[in-house]
Amino acid sequence: MKVPLLDLGSQLKPLREEIIATVTKVIDSTRYIQGPEVTGLEDEVAEYCDTKSAIGVSSGTDALLVALMALDIGPGDYVLTTSYSFFATMGVILRCGARPIFADIDPVSFNIDPVDMARVLENDTEKNIKAIIPVHLYGQCADMTAIMALSEKYSVPVIEDAAQAIGAEYPDVKGNWHRSGSMGLAGCFSFFPSKNLGGMGDGGMLVSNDSNFGRLVRKLRNHGAEPKYYHSKIGGNFRLDPIQAAVLRIKLKHLEKWHASRRENAETYNSLFAESSLIMEGKLKLPIAVYKDLAEKSTGSNNYHIYNQYIITANNRDGLIDWLRSQDIGCEIYYPLCLHEQECLEGLIEKPSLPHSEKAARSTIALPIYPELTSEMQAYVVGKIVEFYRS
Ligand SMILES: *Cc1c(COP(=O)(O)O)cnc(C)c1O
Prior knowledge:
- By secondary structure, the protein is an alpha/beta fold.
- It is built from 13 helices and 14 strands.
- Helix 2 (16-29) runs antiparallel to helix 9 (242-252) and helix 10 (255-276) runs parallel beside helix 13 (375-390).
- The radius of gyration is 21 Å and the shape is globular.
- The site of pyridoxal-5'-phosphate (PLP) has 15 residues, from helix 4 and helix 5.
């Protein structure tokens, strides 16, 4: 059996005709920049996330970049973030001329640890930290209640890197659930094809409940022009293509169903692994089980995970990866190096001590979790993992 890490073909099949029709409509309209598909998607994402503004941009990276530009982040400034993320999280900070400063992760959720963040913020006596970027890694929100409390205490705005987490939710202290991206000053989504809501090329979106911030980002997205040809700010070309927007509007209608399938698949893995006794023997650690409805599942943790990735930590991780690939099972390491270990950072910051981040980079592995994955495929994956540890 062949089990790919992701199978976009099976997602495309039922939507193909509708997508071709809508893309044809955009082509025939001859309106190839901005226009009704982009504003339509912006309205729908704003509604989906319950935010005042949503601004379509060229990628998740550009959503983060334009957010930092809107905050006027520059040389001499620091941005507090996690070292265990995709490169873009740090790349945008450096491209603004600022420097990253890292807090370690919580070893269970892999998300930035508010206790370590508090230590970093407390040590920032000169108040050089000008923004915080928590990453909702793998589709699970970081501890936003604690993070927003730190944001308020130290008067530092939060930009959520929600690239992997559109539709993930987190409860406030009163138990009201909030969508990722809607809790900080702004949230940044990516429509890279492998994300839960993926386009047919690059795309991204910034959402915000601060109308002034939203307006500024909208202006910066188009070279800071307002009105046309008058530039009071320096922005860039960060626009979202209407062809991508048209595709994404079709896919958005299916997003909740896809999240639900991914969550079901995660449950299936959890029970298959539990039956295998590999967890008890300490060979594997699974993601924490997360439930939105706490009343229903007493073991629930406070998160609504959309499982962009299903991540286990494994003994002899690299050996297991070689084995799975030899058995036609797709798997990947997100990410083999921490951001503070990247060569391009050498000499730019002092080496931080981030033991949990480094340990995660050496032990995690992503298994196939896409919505169309069948339970037979999942049984095959788990069977092969059992075989690896038994032989
Ligand atoms: C995918 C991703 C990005 C970048 O998004 P692009 O659309 O590829 O530019 C940023 N941060 C994280 C955590 C991501 O996973």
